[in-house]
Amino acid sequence: FQVKSENKKTIWNTEEVSEGSEFDDTWDPREKPEYEIFFKQHVGTEDVFFGMTGKDPSTACCEDIVIKIKLPETKYSDITLDIQDKILDLRTPKKKLLLHLPYPVNSKEGRARFLSDEETLEVTLRVSRKFDFMNSS
């Protein structure tokens, strides 16, 4: 078995490593926080009453993914959040969440806010979809 690589010291090709494995941290003892994923779509009267745009209630027609993460006893300054195209990586001193997102997102257009009274981090990410007959916006 020969490994074809531009660097002779490597033991595997980049194609052999699964996507997101650089975030795998199975030996980290921090617990996983509770979280919920919601899908959000922007609809107008032309969608609700007339059905002109062809949108339906499925996740295939949603524009945003909203992730609500419960972080009890956490301060805003303790949160480290890294968003990639298909991965959300959240770290606090007590909690750790590595979440593979259901759809690719535009990591540059996301926003996050910490609701201190609810001890919840709310992350909103824009879904990155190719232009097709279903997603015309």
Q: Any chance you could write out the topology, listing elements then pairs?
A:
Elements: E1 35-40, H1 45-48, E2 64-70, E3 80-83, E4 87-91, E5 96-100, E6 105-115, E7 120-127
Antiparallel strand pairs: 1-2, 2-7, 3-4, 4-5, 6-7
How would you characterize the overall build of this protein?
The chain is 3% helix and 34% strand. With 137 residues, it is mainly β. It has a domain of 73 residues: Immunoglobulin-like, CATH 2.60.40.790. The strands form 2 sheets. It has a 4-stranded antiparallel beta sheet, with no helix packed on it. Strand 4 and strand 5 form a beta hairpin.
Q: How is the biggest beta sheet arranged?
A: 4 strands, antiparallel
The CATH architecture name of the domain at 35-41 and 62-127 reads: Sandwich
State Rg: 19 Å
Approximate shape: flat
| Highest-level CATH class of the domain at 35-41 and 62-127 | Mainly Beta
> Quick check: average pLDDT?
80
The fold-level CATH name of the domain at 35-41 and 62-127 is: Immunoglobulin-like
Within the largest sheet, what's the order of strands?
A: 1-2-7-6
How many DSSP H or I helices?
A: 1
Number of strands: 7
State which percent range the strand residues make up.
Answer: 25-35%
How far apart lie the N and C ends? 48 Å
* Helix content range: under 10%
Order of helices and strands: EHEEEEEE
Low-confidence stretches: none
GO cellular component, one term: cytoplasm
InterPro entries: DNAAF6, PIH1D1/2/3_CS-like
Pfam family, one: PIH1_CS
Protein name: PIHD3 protein
